[in-house]
Amino acid sequence: MITAWLAFVALIVVLLALDLGVFHRRPHVVSVREALGWSAVWIALGLAFSGVVYVAYDRHWAGLGTAVDAVDGTVNTGITAVEKYLTGYVVEKSLSIDNIFVIAMIFSSLAIPAVHQHRVLFWGVLGALVMRGGMIVVGAALIARFHWILWVFAAILIVTGLRMLVARHADGPPAPGLLLHVLRRLFPVADDAESDRFLVRRSSAAGVGGWALTPLALALLLVEGADLVFAVDSIPAIFAITADPFLVFTSNVFAMLGLRSLFFALAGIVRSFRYLKPALALVLVVVGTKMLAAEQLRHLLGDHFNLGLLAVVAGIIAGGIGLSIRADRREKGAWGNVPTTPLATEA
Known about the structure:
The chain has helices at residues 2-23, 32-58, 78-109, 114-145, 149-166, 177-186, 215-239, 245-257, 259-266, 276-292, 294-301, 305-335; strands at residues 68-69, 74-75, 199-203, 209-213. It is mainly alpha-helical and 347 residues long. The chain has one domain. A two-stranded antiparallel sheet has the order 1-2. A two-stranded antiparallel sheet has the order 3-4. α2 (32-58) packs antiparallel against α9 (259-266). The longest helix has 32 residues, at 78-109. It is globular, with a radius of gyration of 21 Å.
């Protein structure tokens, strides 16, 4: 199975190298049109990879599709592997939208120029992939040894979802002010918001230079910290669908790869989707409940019951967006066009 992992990691390295080294070699402000185009590209790649998943599990390439999936107690075939991969991809993609709120606040609070935001997100996503990869390996090992961990994950998802549903903070997650304060106390920081570097050497009155973090570096560290917090929800969510580490990791990776483009496409308008956060909370509750009742659902709906979960999750997200658009149109019809405050510096 190590062959499959190495091949996938090599593919991701090539994609990231092309992204940063060829297509985004020169720093520039990412327009909404460009962001939508790249979002379509990353989504197409994520969906196309399901074909690779089908063939790999159907023909047992590198040992894939030969082990029992601890979540439902079955051996994944090509079809069931695709179902779980796509369901995991949609769930992780949906939950990643919540990251946009915090990332936008980070860029706004540190006054990161729009031209440098793509670079921060590139390295932030790369670090998040490495961090999540480690969490997935540990999580899969724990589930294989202690099956009751799935019940803990289910409880985390349900409790988090219910807390989000009853919370009254309509303006999104709190700004990461505490972590920013700690970083400024721990490390020297250069007040050079226009710098395109993460570290700069600054001179002192005595003529002795020293290295200091730039606001770009602070933004990167805060983005990584935010993703660590969100991973506490998203990693258990994917383990509610499958405990196959390859499916968990690949669906997570493709969902995260499109986060940068999604940010530039939605950062200025995501606040207007007022029912999106309740929809995401409901997704967590549904996925957590599915984890608790996986065996009963499989007996009731058959081995392909993950297709039902996929349809439910997609319906919840679409419903949240649809209700938000409808409510926004009603308000505009009653009060006229009310300008909204963008979440981030103009991209």
